[in-house]
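Hi there, hope your week has been kind to you so far. For a while now I've been wondering how a particular protein folds. I'm sending you its amino acid sequence along with the C-alpha cells. Could you read through the record and tell me how the C-alpha cells relate to the sequence? Take your time with it, there's no hurry, and the full record follows here.
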Amino acid sequence: MKKILLINGHEPFKKAQGKLNQNLFKHMEVVLKNFEIEKTVVTEGYCVEKEIEKFKWMDAVIVQTPIYWFSVPGLFKTYIDTVFLEGAFFEKAKKFGHGGLLTGKQYLFSTTWGANEAVFNRKSSFLEGKSVDDVLFPLHKTFQYCGMDALPSFSVFNAMRNQHIQNTLEDLSIHLNHHINQSKEKSTFTKELAQIAKGMLPYH
C-alpha cells in the first residue's frame, strides 16, 4: 500500500464548525508522510472526473467525517451520489453487490460523534446494542458495493465536549500506524502535532 486518498467530508453548521475534523484530517497527512497522498475537501468543491481518477489511483481511501443524525453530512452524501458512477465504480452483475470495479482497494472510516461511547454496544442504551459499524452499515455497503474492502474504523466520541485532544491524536496515530503503516511504533506525536492539538477546539 503506497497511495492514499484522504477525504474530508465535514460540512459546517453553527455548532459544528469542523475544527476537530479538520485537525484529524491534517494529522493523518503527517502520520502518513511516507505515502503518496491525494486529498479532497468536499466543502472546497471537486471535479467528478478528477475524483474518479483519484479512486482509480489510490490503494486505500481514508474518510474523515462527522456523523449527523446517524449519517454523513449532506454535502458528502451528494459527493458519493455524484462521483460513485456506474462504469467507473461498479457495473451491473448477475449477483447483486458483486459488480464492484475497485477490487483490491481498501477504505477506512474515521468518524466523530456527538454521542458518548457508552451508548454503543449496550442493549439497554438508546442504540439497542448497536456498534459504530452497525450504525455505519449503509456507508460500509456503499464502499463494498464498489469492490473495496474495509479496514477497522476509528471513532471519536462526545466530540462536542472532547477535552482530550492530545490523547485523541495519539489514538489516531496508533490506529493508522497499525492498519495503514503496519508499524509497531506507539505514536508519531511530534512537536508539530502538539501545536495542532494546542490550537484545536473540541467541536465536530
